[in-house]
Amino acid sequence: MKELKEIPLFSGLTEKQLLLLKEIVHIRQFKEGELLFLEGESPDAFYIVKTGGVDIIRGAPGGKEIILERMKAGDFFGEMAIIEENKRSATARIAKDVRLFVIEKRLFIKFIKDNPEIVIKMIAELSRRLRIANQDIEDLAFYDVEKRLKRLLLRLADVDAKKGEGIIHNKVTHREMAKYIGTSRETVTRLLHKLKKNKMIKLAGNKIILYSPEKW
């Protein structure tokens, strides 16, 4: 029950509510590369990431993909199709070996009806995602590829204003970055080398360090 209480979406629930939640939640594990659900499928469950990562992706012309968002520990997804009573609007693919809290569709609907405070938190998170989507549209419309890459790095980084640095702890592959910003892997590789040469970033193992991100 402690694990559920630590999830932001459920942080304000009472002990009684958490006990009820515990009865309807089960944990499932998936390996990197597995598909959780496909765009166009009927929804059957609501998901929360316990550990690992899940990419939410959409197909694009020419067989390409765009990563809409990477869900990490504490993030929830799969709610839109359930609430709208519609088909899945995107595909979910495991980005890193993952453990998920899973709630069956019918039980999830009943739980949020009985506990409407959960809906308020969900709306707040969906509003945040909408702002990011609007930013992505703005980026594609007004910025060149290099600027889009910089803005992506800033979004992914944990910024320490005192140190004047930002750190991306779980390194995203060049191919994944390309899918985020609508370009090719080769272009991302070339631009990262350019940023490194200009001493704007440092590639350190699984980390990317951003120097003076406030000036970007």
Overview of this protein structure:
With 216 residues, this protein is of the alpha+beta class. Helix content is 41%, strand content 30%. It is built from eight helices and ten strands. The strands form two sheets. Strands 1, 2, 3, 4, 5 and 6 form a six-stranded antiparallel β-sheet that branches. The chain has a four-stranded antiparallel β-sheet with strand order 7-8-10-9. The N and C termini lie far apart (43 Å). 23% of the residues are buried. The model has no long low-confidence stretch (mean pLDDT 91).
Quick rundown:
Helices cover 41% and strands 30% of the residues.
Overall, the morphology is globular
- The parts where pLDDT drops under 50 for at least 5 residues are none
Radius of gyration in whole Å, from Cα?
19 Å
Major beta sheet, specifics? 6 strands, antiparallel
Q: Strand share of the residues?
A: 25-35%
Number of helical segments with 4 or more residues: 8
Structural class: alpha+beta
